[in-house]
Amino acid sequence: MNIFRFAGDMTHLISILVLLLKIYATKSCSGISLKTQELYALVFVTRYLDLFTDYISLYNTMMKLVFITSSLAIVWCMRGHRVVRRTYDKEIDTFRHYFLVLGCFVLALILHEKFTIQEVLWAFSIYLEAIAIIPQLVLLQRSGNVDNLTGQYVFFLGAYRAFYVLNWIYRYFTEARFSRWIACISGLVQTALYADFFYYYFMSWKNNSKLQLPA
After folding, report:
1. What gap in Å lies between CA 121 and CA 39, rounded to an integer?
2. C-beta separation of 140 from 31 below 8 A
3. Rounded CA gap, 168 and 172, in Å?
4. % of the chain residues with pLDDT over 90
5. Integer angstrom CA distances of residue 86 from 15, 27, 77, 125, 161
6. Which are the contacts of 46, defined by CB distance < 8 A and separation ≥ 6?
7. Domain boundaries in the chain?
8. Is 80 exceeded by the pLDDT of residue 172?
9. Bridge partner residues of 212 (DSSP)
10. According to the model, what pLDDT value does residue 173 have?
11. Given this model, what pLDDT does residue 186 score?
């Protein structure tokens, strides 16, 4: 465990808490993409299959369980909660996310570190997580105005990946056998997708104004 990974885990956890706060405090999921949340649920379910085979530490196990259960809970709220589901922006959350799933699965079959079910699904989850934010960013651009909690959720989610890129760079220089090149490249791609959002988030913070994204 290094400081960059810990910071990444904490910012990821904060992003989830902010999203849960928005949903449960306001009873609204307006501005949140169900497509992105479904992709994240699929990411964590396929990545953490090693829960049944490998034990690393209590911290590692607890974080995996938190990410799986929270992602499934968010999807359930947006689909099944009788109040929250009425606020879902179905008309503008129309990105065809199943194409992302199919493309990432094919890529995982071609580019992986070991040809085993667990390793192929791990690669699939890494590729999918790198682009899972796309439906959310598209929804925010279509809606224009971004409420405070939604903006903070996306910001912390982007910060989490940025810290993990630093974590991988640190491990590359400090671990003799670190070879997770798939994670490194995918992390860089994912962080780059947030660049435009980070710019407008910083400008809104600097000018003390409401966050707005260009259509």
Report:
1. 14
2. yes
3. 6
4. 44
5. 23, 10, 10, 30, 31
6. 121, 122, 124, 125, 128
7. 3-204
8. no
9. 145
10. 81
11. 83
